[in-house]
Structures are given as C-alpha cells and as structure tokens.
Amino acid sequence: MANLHILIINPNSTKSMTDALQPLVEGLNYPNTAYHYFTAPSGPPSINNAADISASVTACLPHLEKLVDTEKYDGYLIACYSHHPLVSALRTRTAVPVLGIFEASVVTALQLLNPKTELREQFGIVSTGKVWEELLGTAVLEMLGTASSARNGRVAGVETTGLDATELHSAPQEEVKRRIKEAARKLVERGNVKVVLLGCAGMVGMETWVKEEVGEAVKVVDGLKAGIVALQGLIRAGF
To answer: Using CA atoms, how far apart are residues 101 and 115, in angstroms rounded to an integer?
Structure first.
C-alpha cells in the first residue's frame, strides 16, 4: 500500500503528453509511492510562449486549489519546463513540497558541475521554439540571482529546435532527432558545457539522442526525472 501520494501536473490540455510522462516516472521505482496525474481541463494544447503560460494558469488553478485543499497529496510537481506561476501559487496554499521541473533541473545541474571556478564548467538548455531562448535564459539568471550570463560563468545559454512540444511527437522522428542533436551540438560548442538540460517535458526519453551527439563526458538531465528525485527527497526528509 502506498504511503506517499504525488500529483504530477501537466498544465497543457493534451492528455497524450501526460500519458507520455508515466513510463519514466513509474520506471524510477520509488517504493511505497502512488503517482497521480492531472491534465489541464482546457487551455493551450501546448505551452509555447508567455501567453500560453498565463492561459494555463487560468485553466488549471481553480481545479488545483480544490485538489490541494483535500490534503490528499504529499507533494506536487509542475511538469512544464518554464518559470511557471503554478509553482508559487500552490506553495502559498500548501505546506507540502511543490516543485517545477525547470527549477529542479537547474539545481541538479549545479550539483553536477565541478565547483572549482577556474574550470568554468557550464550547463545549458536544449528547448523547443526560439521564444524560449529569452524566456528560459532570463528565468535561469533570475533564479541564480545574476544580472547577466556574462557575470555568471555557469550558464552557457539556451539552444532551440524550432519545434513546439506537440511536434516533438507528431513530426517525423528522424527530423525531431536531427534537430535535438543539432541543438545539443551547438550548445556544447558554446563553451565548457558539462551538463545539458532537456528543456521541455515533451523531451522525455530523448536524452539518448543528446548523449549520442555530445558524448558520455557530458551529463544529460531530464527535468521530469530531476523533479521526481528532488520531490521524493524533500518528502521523505520531512522538509
């Protein structure tokens, strides 16, 4: 019987994307855990810009507030790779851990980099549409409390594929693979990049393609996996 109940929230309205998350989540094999899944009942089918983020909050928050108030869940994970307002909104309503996959992946990257500053090891993000270069670039710097990437040697930036989240699964697989690999290659060519973050929940399972392109010396972090690992640790430690 499960002792922990975790709600994984897909704030877009495409249930097939939610379904695609389940094999990775369940495959982590954490004991005594039941995972529950929420898909936005309306709103954007894919979150591709700031307007979509805002619309997804409007679509999801009233329903999520009711779920939070049941006190059924021990933790929540927002499965949208962005500085998503739902993280903050749910934290104000519950004392249990609430994480976003974006924040979890950045923290994981920092843990994987060598802390010796003279080595200048960096992390970067591979994401979908070009709009995310600015959105995620700004979000990372704000999270790290840094005014610019030039003043933070840890951040290599964001490379994008030109595909949105739904196209990652609807476009021909070879074309998706080519674009993912190309973005990863460009990213590691920017500097001493030792960690690549997969900047979209729709990229679940695509880390193998990135590893093929950048080699085993570069760590590849799936945000969903990082989020589950972090959330499990916080819940089990009683934080």
So the answer is: 23
d(CA 136, CA 143): 10
Taking CA 24 as the corner, what is the angle to CA 18 and CA 27, rounded to the nearest 5 degrees? 130
Q: The tokens 């840094």 sit on which residue?
A: 146
Q: What is the pLDDT of residues 17-43, one digit of tens each?
A: 999 999 999 999 999 999 999 999 999
d(CA 60, CA 9): 9
Q: What one-character-per-residue DSSP string does the chain give?
A: --SEEEEEEE-SS-HHHHHHHHHHHHHT--TTEEEEEEE-SSS-SS--SHHHHHHHHHHHHHHHHHHHHTT--SEEEE-SSS--HHHHHHHTT-SS-EEEHHHHHHHHHHHHS---GGG--EEEEEESSTHHHHHHHHHHHHHHT-S-GGG-TTEEEEEE-S--TTHHHHS-HHHHHHHHHHHHHHHHTTTTEEEEEE--GGGTT-HHHHHHHH-TTSEEEEHHHHHHHHHHHHHHHT-
d(CA 34, CA 130): 36
Within 10 Å of residue 129's Cβ, how many Cβ atoms? 18
Look at the chain and count its residues: 239
Instruction: Give the type of residue at 161.
Output: T
pTM over 0.90: yes
